[in-house]
Design a protein that fits this description.
Elements: E1 4-8, H1 13-24, E2 28-31, H2 38-41, E3 47-50, H3 60-78, E4 81-86, H4 109-124, E5 128-132, E6 135-137, H5 145-150, E7 158-161, E8 169-173, H6 174-185, E9 193-197, E10 201-203, H7 205-216, E11 221-224, H8 227-233, H9 238-245, H10 247-251, H11 259-264, H12 273-294
Parallel strand pairs: 1-2, 1-3, 3-4, 4-5, 5-9, 6-8, 7-11
Antiparallel strand pairs: 8-10
Amino acid sequence: MTRTVLILGASGHSGSAFADAFASAGWRLRRFQRGEDPAKAARGADLIVNAMNPPDYHDWARQIPQITELAMTAARASGARVLIPGNVYVYGTQPAPWSAATAHHPCSRKGQIRATMEAAWRRSGLPVTILRAGAFLDGSKPGLVMGLLVLKKLHKGRITALARPDIPRAYAYLPDLARAAVALSERGDLPVFADIPFPGHTFSMNDFAAEIARQTGRSPRLTRFPWWSLRLAAPFWELARELGEMRYLFEHPHSLDGKALAARLPDFETTPFAEVVAGHLTDLGKRRESNFRKS
């Protein structure tokens, strides 16, 4: 029997990846439209993916609770399980690797907002899966931090590191994360509240630069991001103001424990790191070629 998934935020970075993965797996796809009645939209759904997030961290303190209530309304009306792409903000600067057993000690305002949201889901008693991941990666989505800041000047032979280039961080290649979401959602043995870290890839900017050099034969120069420029831009650029609060996450080495995911999906394989890097190089090349034709 064909299952139905309702995706909140299907046009966003993660939402579009989830939509592609569920459609490829044969699920019937519904995309929630802002302004719809969530109870009506969720009628007959087997799963709700809550990938809705305000762009550029806009007004999180007000909008995240509103989005959470919208998703809960849809879940109560349909009886469907909810899957949430989680992040690592709730852990603050605790020692890694992080797992479901790691206490929530956020050190940022956005981390506290997410911790409050997750606590609300736990109290609700509704079936929910938090598939927790590090920073999103996908070369086809230039609006992510990797394309927006880190690789912005790669065509000039430079990579911009947002902290010391030897610091390892957790990353999730979005097509892999979406495939894992599908596989988990097709299981019937998840607990009511499932907090499952997605280990993805853990690497430093030195590692990323080395792989680019291996594939291209050219070693990019690593430069440090000028955080002072965000402080100057903060009064008139919302993303600059909000990104500055998350600087600690670039400076704190971290990774995610993959034991819980491996226990449930023992055959799951992530896309090799070399292929993830190659995808970024290919998409950057396509965009430069497209811009050249337009100019």
